[in-house]
Specification:
376 residues, mainly alpha, 2 domains
């Protein structure tokens, strides 16, 4: 997902600035180029899915975790190609501020997804295979609905049909796509690495369960921030394309303040319900106790995380993906991962360090971004 979403984010820069500059005819070409590049990448990534179980065993994960994850990965291959189609579509529509159609489609699919997840996973007992099948089907429906919307002519000059121009100047597009992918992957993979490291701790299953629950909660709370990320990216790219830098700067200030306030509210709700919400995710008392123990640090991480994506969105809108990739390397991997390993294993802090180190590193990220942002 990190690679697909990251490479698709190149369209945030190109389509956003093309829309702001009034070059609508190029938007459809950019969309098709992104499809070509992302679907080619998806073919290569299939091998990671196919050999996931063996790779996990190779790096020392438990047999049970490796088998379950490997089986799930193989069933999720169709979703990989839906990512390759959907992420460029989303950026293409966002650049035109056609947000409501995506929200409606996602809302309808969410209802169907919930019903069929219950039916296949719990009622029919398909377990993880059922989850994968429903996820695949949900993404197919989303992509089909959005393609129908685009092909119906609702995008005007932005979509005039398929063109061989999509295969021209691919290398320049690939370079920006790769820079976007590196920027996002360094961020996403950091959190995946935390869960991976949890598999090496004592009571690995409990640690992985608790950390996965917290990561999912963090992911849910980040939805508001990611929405703001998309909005500020579109606004900045549109305004820069139209040569309005002061408007872009004002939009940034509004987005940062709004996201920070939302983060405070979400953290307060989480702290107020820390005795209750763990039981919604697991019936295991040891998992519940560990999730409750992690809640204060999770709340701090939510506050910091909630405005960091806004700054990333500004960077994408301005086309600074390569510069941000260097920032992420320094913050997450020169500081974050080593600190996590030292605290978690050497000092025996266990799974608690996952959020503690990520909070510290994201704060460093924000400080580094503060140096870059005045360049707007």
């Amino acid at each position: 997902m990190g690679i697909m979403l990251g490479m698709g984010s190149a369209l945030e820069t190109l389509c956003g600035q093309a829309y702001g500059a009034g070059q609508l005819d190029m938007m459809g070409i950019y969309l098709q180029r992104s499809w070509v590049i992302l679907n080619t990448t998806a073919v290569a990534l299939c091998f990671l899915y196919i050999f996931a179980a063996k790779l996990l065993r190779l790096i020392g994960q438990t047999e049970a975790i490796s088998e379950e994850a490997g089986m799930f990965a193989i069933w999720m291959i169709p979703q990989l190609f839906m990512y390759a189609m959907n992420f460029p579509i989303a950026k293409f529509l966002q650049a035109q501020s056609k947000i409501m159609v995506m929200a409606v489609v996602a809302g309808v699919v969410l209802v169907l997804h919930t019903v069929f997840s219950w039916l296949l996973m719990l009622k029919l007992g398909w377990g993880l295979v059922g989850a994968a099948v429903v996820l695949d089907a949900s993404w197919v429906v989303i992509v089909a609905a959005l393609l129908a919307y685009i092909f119906s002519g609702t995008c005007g000059r932005a979509w005039t049909g398929f063109s061989w121009k999509a295969f021209e100047n691919l290398w320049g597009f690939v370079r920006l796509s790769l820079a976007s992918a590196v920027m996002l992957c360094l961020e996403v993979w950091y959190y995946m690495a935390l869960i991976l490291f949890a598999g090496y701790l004592k009571n690995a299953e409990v640690s992985v369960d608790a950390l996965s629950i917290c990561m999912n909660i963090l992911g849910w709370t980040l939805m508001a921030a990611l929405g703001m990320n998309a909005a500020i990216s579109v606004r900045v790219s549109n305004e820069l394309g139209a040569a309005h830098p002061r408007t872009a700067k004002f939009s940034l200030i509004v987005a940062v303040i709004s996201s920070f306030m939302v983060g405070l509210v979400l953290s307060a709700i989480l702290l107020a319900t820390q005795d209750v919400y763990p039981s919604l995710f697991s019936s295991d008392s040891s998992v519940q106790a560990l999730v409750k123990e992690l809640t204060p640090v999770l709340a701090l991480c939510i506050v910091i995380n909630n405005f960091q994506p806004v700054l990333s969105g500004v960077a994408v809108g301005a086309g600074w993906q390569a510069a941000v990739a260097y920032v992420n390397i320094a913050c997450y991997y020169l500081f974050g991962v080593p600190l996590g390993l030292i605290f978690g294993f050497k000092l025996d802090w266990g799974v608690k360090v996952s959020f503690l180190s990520s909070s510290i590193i994201l704060e460093v990220t924000v400080r580094l971004f503060a140096v870059i942002l005045p360049l707007i």
